[in-house]
Amino acid sequence: xxxxxxxxxxxxQEYNYNKYKDIDLNSLICYVSNLLEANGIILTFENIYxxxxxxxxxxxxxxxxxxxxxxARINRSILQCLPKYQNLLMGNAKKGxxxxxxxxxxxKDVAKxxxxxxxxxxxxxxxxxxxxxxxxxxxxxxxxxEKVAFKKFAQQKxxxxxxxxxxxxxxxxxxxxxxKIQDKLYKLDNLAKIGHSQQLIGFMNWLKKSKVLRLYxxx
Length: 219
Description:
CATH architecture of the largest domain: Orthogonal Bundle
Distance between the termini: 49 Å
Order of helices and strands: HHHHHHEEHHHHHHH
Helix content: 55-70%
Number of helices: 13
Largest sheet: 2 strands, antiparallel
Structural class: mainly alpha
Oligomer: single chain
Mean pLDDT: 84
Shape: elongated
Radius of gyration: 19 Å
Low-confidence stretches: 118-132
CATH topology of the largest domain: Arc Repressor Mutant, subunit A
Strand order of the largest sheet: 1-2
CATH class of the largest domain: Mainly Alpha
CATH superfamily of the largest domain: Winged helix-like DNA-binding domain superfamily/Winged helix DNA-binding domain
């Protein structure tokens, strides 16, 4: 076990937060998976888990305890990469995973973005970086609160919320595939939980049960 951990520590290096703060979690998972595959290391959940946290700790740590990885967060990202959702990884936790062609494209794109302008930089888990992640979440939630659909909900005028206002809130179009709508709902649920926003959690619970949205999802 110790030898394996040392191998992963040599393979992965921590990136400066500014290099990956705008890269989505699933793409980072693809990058880690590609690095493992390129070095002949099996894509187990444990290997992806360790590699993700070593390289991108401020994306995969517990918000209030940055010195510890958020296993649930990493697990959700891996699940989102599977064929049912984004088709970036295939396989399972028991037998191991493998990057799909699309996943490999994502991984290479991340590699290019990480290599621009600067080398790998190891940084401490400072309060500044944790605050930056928290501020980013709060900014996104504040932006959602400005949407017409949420304002009507806050005023207890749910019956006045129109379909176009719901899709404006989701930043989607009515003709988008229902899988895309489900993915967006999943991301907003996570945003509400990470931001500890009871208001957004309440709205999301109402939204998922609304007749308007269920109509589109059942099509």
